[in-house]
Amino acid sequence: MLGGMAQTTEHRPSASTRPPRAPRVHRAWFVAAVTFVTIIGAAAFASLPGLLIEPLHAEFDWSRGTIGFAVSVNLALYGLTAPFAAALMDRFGIRKVVAVALSVIALGSLLTVWMTAAWQLVLYWGLLVGLGSGSMALAFAATVTNRWFTARRGLVTGILTAAGASGQLVFLPLLSWLVEHHGWRPAAVTTALAALAVVPFVWLLLRDHPADVGLAPYGGEYAEKPAPVTGAARRAVTVLSKAARTGPFWLLAGTFAICGASTNGLVKTHFVPAAHDHGMPVTAAAGLLAVIGVFDVVGTIASGWFTDRFSPRRLLAVYYALRGISLLFLPMLLAPSVHPPMIFFIVFYGLDWVATVPPTIALCREHYGEDSAIVFGWVLASHQVGAAAVAFAGGVARDVFGSYDVVWYASGALCAAAALMALVIRHPRHDGPHGELEK
User: Fold this and answer.
1) DSSP letter at 263?
2) Mean pLDDT of residues grouped by 10 in the chain (439 residues)?
3) For residue 154, what are the contacts with CB-CB under 8 A and spacing of at least 6?
4) How many CA atoms lie within 13 A of 409 on its CB side?
5) In 309-371, where does DSSP find H-type helix?
6) 153: CB partners within 8 A, 6+ apart
7) What does pTM read for this prediction?
8) How far apart are CA 184 and CA 291, in angstroms?
9) Helices (H), 136-246
């Protein structure tokens, strides 16, 4: 009997050897929530440039070309900084890079309040805010998703993408009201405060890796935190060099350039003046853009859910095809007042605004493995190049033809080409842990 008692005691696990009870809500969801709020706070400044062109021109008598140059620097750095920011996060950690980026955004926005010369606008608005916002670009969302989630990656990518795109558009009504009633300086201060407000949340709640808190990624197995990767800039360029030798990279970069051209470059930049050409008040047109931001949340999260269940290639083809068809109808919908067909277009376009991001990130992950966040950073750079090109070309077309109709039709054709390009992307052959980069 004593032997039986001894045997029972021997096989009873002690309190110290029992596995820890799994948390009811995985820590990864709290990290995703902090990331969501952080991206919204950083997105406030992206709503401001279009609102400040006229006030700055009126106060300082700067040409619109000079002001546009500062915006171009901002857009270019927003895209080109992203892959280097992803590499810096691998080297120094997500928390440090994000906190510094938010502080740089706030500094650049605050300094514009005291500027007196055009070069200061380029330095503060273009350089500082461009570098800071580029470090807070979608590569940040991709890095968090890759590290903290194994399951539900598509859904989380959709949620975090919606934060960036919708944050830019939802801030638009508030900032336009501030500019109209109190001037442009309170609006600039508001964007600085929005960026600073989330810094404490980042520093206190965000963690670089699940292993920092002794957890496995959501839906995955526990793995030790990898050692910091040195040579961040060199790694970003090396990853680009390897990815550029693969076909899927150019197809993804091409489709995403068209995505940027048909959203930020076209609708976000030229929808308000195009609607105003047809007699619609500027405030009403700006309000429609804000509605796009609201429905973008639904569309992007749904796209993430679809990406977990369906082929990302086919999803991209469907999204671009539908976007192209809607742009072909837009010239017939513009009118002095807001009517039901226009509301339908706004809701539909909002659902499709950045629905392309979750499947694009998924394809980067399939083809480029652990380097996918940096590869996506370069793909995002192509998005900004496409946006900048159409933002400029749209204005030139308006000057030459007297209307935006040709721009809408051309963009519809580009979206059709993007749909075909998405279908051409082949399935990856995983010959090694880095996928396409090993070929």
Assistant:
1) I
2) 44 44 72 83 70 77 72 77 76 84 89 90 86 76 82 80 69 78 87 86 81 79 72 80 92 94 83 82 78 82 87 93 92 88 89 87 88 84 84 77 88 94 81 42
3) 303, 304, 305, 306, 307, 308, 309, 358, 359, 362
4) 7
5) 312-333, 340-352, 357-368
6) 145, 146, 308, 362, 365
7) 0.70
8) 23
9) 138-148, 153-182, 184-197, 199-205, 232-243
